[in-house]
User: Fold Myosin motor domain-containing protein from Ambrosia artemisiifolia.
Amino acid sequence: MINEGKSNSILVSGESGAGKTETTKMIMRFLAYLGGRKATEGRTVEQQVLESNPVLEAFGNAKTVRNNNSSRFGKFVEIQFDKHGRISGAAIRTYLLERSRVCQRHQ
Assistant:
């Protein structure tokens, strides 16, 4: 990315229960490690991005037959880097929330 000067994308896809959410978390931790800054006052952008995962899971995950913590929504994560390869910003957009599973208990 730094050498080529071009944006990059990573698409994580797979069958239900294949580990897409956990893989995405690992990728985000790795990118936060590579693009992290030295400890400063307050929480860094990379910490804030990583800390958003449990919040999103609390509102958008549900138990299914195959998975006790199944994501019932899609997530688009954009992490911006400066010219030195350090994280400078981020945006997380959710979509396709499966409301019937998240908002109601199974009878």
